[in-house]
Amino acid sequence: MVPSDLRLALDGIGAPTAVIDLAAFDSNLEALAKRARGLPIRVATKSLRTPAAIERALSHPAYSGVLAYSVPEALTLHARGIRDIVIGYPSLDREGLAELLADAEALGDITVMIDSVAHLDVIDDVRRQIAEAGDGLAEAGRSAPAQDRAPAEAAASVRVCIDVDSSFRPAESWLGDRIHIGARRSPIREADSAVALAEQVAARPGFSLVGLMFYEGQIAGTADAGRSARQAVVRALQRASMTELAERRAAVIAAVREVAELEFVNGGGTGSFESSAVEGTLTELAAGSGLFSPGLFDGYTHFRHTPAAYFVTPVVRRPAPGWVTVFKGGYIASGVAGADRVPTIAWPPGLEYSGLEGAGEVQTPLTGPGTEDLRIGDLVWFRHAKAGELAEHFNGFLVVKGSSIVETWSTYRGEGLVL
What we know:
By secondary structure, the chain is α/β, with parallel strands linked by helices. Helix content is 32%, strand content 22%. A hairpin with a 2-residue loop joins strand 16 (396-401) and strand 17 (404-410). The chain is globular, with a radius of gyration of 24 Å.
């Protein structure tokens, strides 16, 4: 359900538009902080993609630093004054890396992700190209543009973090990775491979290993509620995965600490705070989706956040008794296609999608008893299945407090930032 004062605030507003319930957002800030059990929370920016929302989270004492998606995003956030940025995915963006290498202050605040020596090679190659460009311009008696200048010696070391695979592989000693439950991210999985890469970082000039990251998507990003046999299996696999990961993660961390003095060990996600916070291996958690509380989070048993992000779109047709059609609405989430990837219909109650059309790009037919009181121009409220992806469809969010629109928060899309 959507609070009545929230609906009142959008009375007469042009739509489609995206909406943030500020009270719910702040409530989720507190809920995540409580679930973190004292561990600092690094804000996963990909799950918000809205600078004002990121900055509001960072103003809370339980939140520290951000987990960004790409080099351009990290540099943009750094230019806005955000420090302690970890880029959560390896980057081959040579132009972005060149800009990072040319900015001594950013080099000291931004950590890049690696899981292979090849990632180090790319950075070194960019560094070499910068140096060669600078030498050529010096011979010609001209100054190099900022992006072509060699990094200042005082800050020339690139901060790196190793991404360690946290998926669950039952009977791995027999079956290898043929049964792989969780995200396929890093080839680094055991202590020996992590140490081998850490030693490569330590031996290579211009790099400093400062952190490890573990993302247990099979726990944090997989709904476990329900009484079906499938959901019972999901819960059993998650429990087994928690046990296996705690032991393996502790071994990896201890081994790598023999090679490098780590500043942080990051892990978890909104859906796994309960297990990640008490494991005793992590120095910080990461979360972002829980602040918006998208539709996928309705399927978890161990926590419940308050829906804070919506989109609304108007009824544009009444094609038949018991039917209405709204404009657009087909904002389908990434991942394996299925019913859990379509937007959740939040208000009015008693609406459901057409079995033949579903959520459409230009129009979405809806049926059910909830259509009875809807007229042309009335707004239907939805929640995206995933958090940050909603921001890819709108230039900004209308921010509502009580029954009033108090602000507009621009999204990355609205500010022209392409991840």
